[in-house]
Design brief:
Oligomer: single chain
Order of helices and strands: HEEHEEHEHE
Strand content: 25-35%
Number of strands: 6
Shape: globular
Largest sheet: 6 strands, mixed
CATH class: Alpha Beta
Structural class: alpha+beta
CATH architecture: 3-Layer(aba) Sandwich
Helix content: 25-40%
CATH superfamily: DNA repair protein MutS, domain I
């Protein structure tokens, strides 16, 4: 995925930066009670999981593909994706959104990948 980080929201810029560190995995990006996927990850995950593909904002005049799954149901989705040959990078919120707001109204919640899900890591 070679997507310019210009003209995107601060949240999407953070997503793209984290995604660049895990190019061979689907990035499950925590947004509250959901994990969301964007761009090519969203297209692949929506097809593999048979879930709705929607959009979130625009990038370079094009809709940004998006899909998501509830955090409470994520393990089942991970298993399905691993069985279909995907790797998953799980990106969690590392602070409460209220903490981010203390840094300014445009501050983005700190996130980092805390888990890589592969066939060898599933129990």
């Amino acid at each position: 995925m070679n997507i310019a980080k210009t003209s995107v929201t601060p949240m999407m810029a953070q997503y793209l930066e984290i995604k660049s560190e895990y190019p061979d995995a689907l990035l499950f990006y925590r947004m509250g009670d959901f994990y969301e996927m964007f761009f090519d990850d969203a297209i692949a995950a929506a097809e593999a999981l048979d879930i709705a593909l929607t959009k979130r904002g625009k990038h370079l005049g094009q809709d940004i593909p998006m899909c998501g799954v509830p955090v409470r149901a994520a393990e089942g989705y991970f298993l399905t994706l691993i069985r279909k040959g995907f790797r998953v990078a799980v990106c969690e919120q590392m602070e409460d959104p209220a903490e981010a707001k203390k840094r300014g109204y445009k501050a983005v919640v700190k996130r980092e990948v805390v888990r890589l899900v592969t066939p060898g890591t599933l129990t």
